[in-house]
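Data availability (excerpt). The following record was deposited with the supplementary files.
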Amino acid sequence: MTKKIFLIINKYAGHQNGADVLDVVVSYLKKNGCSVEYSFTNHPGHATELASDASAGGFDLVVAVGGDGTVNEVAQGLIGTETPMGIIPLGSGNGLARELGISMNLLKSTRTLIEGKNLKLDVCKLNDQRFLCTSGIGFDALVAHKMSKAASRGFLKYVQLVVQESIFYKPLDVRIKIDGVLIEKPVFLITFANASQFGNNAFIAPAASMTDGLIDVVVVRKFAKIWMPVFAVALFTKLIPKLPFVECFKAKQIDLELADTPYYHFDGEPGQMQTPAIIKLDAAKIWVRCGR
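Predicted structure:
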């Protein structure tokens, strides 16, 4: 039984309305017999500290209330523990929530905190940075970096950046070994996927599973810009593997020996690329309360 619940809230999520969810979420949980405590995040890494403390404090469920960045931070504090993570999705992408069948509706996602089932998920890492859904280099990493610097957030801003950056984007030179198989060619992007999607139901790796003990690697080679609309449609129709310039692999370990870029992303958050890099499964896993 889930009786003690701790909410970790990004008050700036959901167009800066994160704090407004309290009335709905806390009221529903208390009406269903739960004891609820909460805290707002106030600096980078704070959600990880709060999650770790809540797990050690005996809470039955620790809930990330926010977008993918908040979810990733909360997860960092719960990986390797027996405390499950719940999600109230308030971001623009909500990749993990969508992957696990958690509704974007506030009341329905709150109900999942009580009625959902716990699922033990694989955790991946690029060097020392853990991620749950996707990581990668190339075009999507550049957009993640630009998005982090933007004055506004949201799906429309993301689309604007995609269109803007695609005009002058130059493919990357990479040298990578996927379970020992060498690939050395210019690429548009490479995604290391534990989950099937980036978020917003944009499926970069439709065959990916978060419980199979493997990382899906999607290599999108250099392609003519005339293909860009086709690539966009394929993302939202699960047809990326069908494109002639895409190669898909399943692997235990990826060795990124060279990448001509300063950027990578992890669960949509920007990072500074350092090569050589190793991408593999973490020894620890995480329990997550899912909607299916």
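Summary of structural features: Residues 4-115 form a domain with the Rossmann fold fold (CATH 3.40.50.10330).
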